[in-house]
Amino acid sequence: MMNNSHLVVPASRGHNGRGALALGLLALSATLVSGEAAGKLTVVASGLNNPRGLAYGPGGVLYVAEAGLGAGNGHGGFGEGVGFTGSITEIRNVGAPHPQARRVVSNLASLGTTERGPEVVGADGICSGKAGNLYVIMAESVAGVLAESPTLNPDQVGQFGHLLSIPVIGHRRSWTAVADVGDFNYAWTGAHRNDSWAPHNAPAAGSPPPGTPQFPDANPYGVLVVDGRQFVVDAGANTLNEVLSNGIVRIIAYFPDPRLPVSATVTVPVSDAVPTCVAKGPDGFLYVGTLAFGANFARAGNPLWKDLPKQSKIYRVDPNSTKFFLTEADVWAADLNPITGCAFAHNGKALYVTEFQTQESGYTTGDLVRIAVVIDGTAGARTALGVGELHEPNGVACTPNGAVYVSNHSISSGQGEVVRVNQ
């Protein structure tokens, strides 16, 4: 029924290209300091259904977005198709010996597929706004879901692709749609589907490049609300968007396909970048992490490319730039495993990045990496904090007292967690 646009990973609609890996964009090297992993994690919430983004809100409350169970029964049972099993869980007293977790928002749309095993998307990104409201970004798009499953009732899929605002008051919390990011990006990518920079599937044998277009596509995945502005990264459209106060959506930046070498002088795109997270740096710029799942695995699986850098990156983007969207993003850090979450420490001295799976573990476990911010603003030494203990981590949140929380087992129904990583 569905293609891999609905997969939790690579979080992109189109099929990953089969082309060769390109010689790293900026083969930046960095010092990686392995932290002792044993006993590094403290569980503060468990029994979650596909936990994704994290947000640290007023009063020291931690919020986690749960993508849900698809069309499951709401009690731990996964189901293929669309259901309303997504939710938001709040965790109080996260730093105390006995934190309390409870679901405060329910009935959010959730989409499950069994195309490559049971996988779910839904409420993927979450952020706490200055006024205390929560902002949640829903995966996919109404147009995209209906294009693949035209027999669905439009009322069933109306939440997909929308940025939702949820007041943090009372015991029952309702949501309000702020903007339809998904349908905007689905239409925008459709209009650009044949452009030279747009991602394409690998061409069939004997066919000329570039192959079948992967656009139209949309899968909003991460959200940041800061300084009265609202930003969304779309893992399907490969864009950074701003949602203006009137609900209008605009494109700030497009993140290009990784490119890998087929000869000493020729590189080919390996689709696609798949931006998954956005954080504001101490310099006021936005920092965006990419999954680049296809390029990472293609690189790891080819002995000719084993010495090339890993393909996930952190891009630095000026939110006020008037540059053309194809030239806006600059690489700040490279040579990273597939990124699913990112957040700056409150003092701005480090960026924390969750790596969904790492080459170092044979792609069996994930990690949390701390990247120091040098005094001149460049990326400094890296410290691996979750070696061997984190499994498919996703969202990351930093507290004013320096604690760091991560959503763990993020593609698990009923087995998901939120953990504190003890540095």
Provide the domain count.
Answer: 1
Number of strands: 28
Mean residue pLDDT: 88
Global morphology: globular
Low-confidence stretches: 1-38
- Structural category is mainly beta
Q: What proportion of the residues is helical, as a percent range? A: under 10%
The CATH level-2 architecture is identified as: 6 Propeller
Strand arrangement, largest sheet? 1-25-24-23-22
Q: What is the CATH superfamily?
A: TolB, C-terminal domain
Q: Which range does the strand content fall in?
A: 35-45%
Describe the overall structure.
The protein is mainly beta and 423 residues long. The chain has a single domain, classed as 6 Propeller (Neuraminidase). The protein contains 3 helices and 28 strands. The strands form 7 sheets. It has a 5-stranded mixed sheet with strand order 1-25-24-23-22, with no helix packed on it. A hairpin with a 5-residue loop joins strand 14 and strand 15. The chain is globular and about 60 Å long. It starts with 31 loop residues before the first strand and ends with a strand. The N terminus is likely disordered.
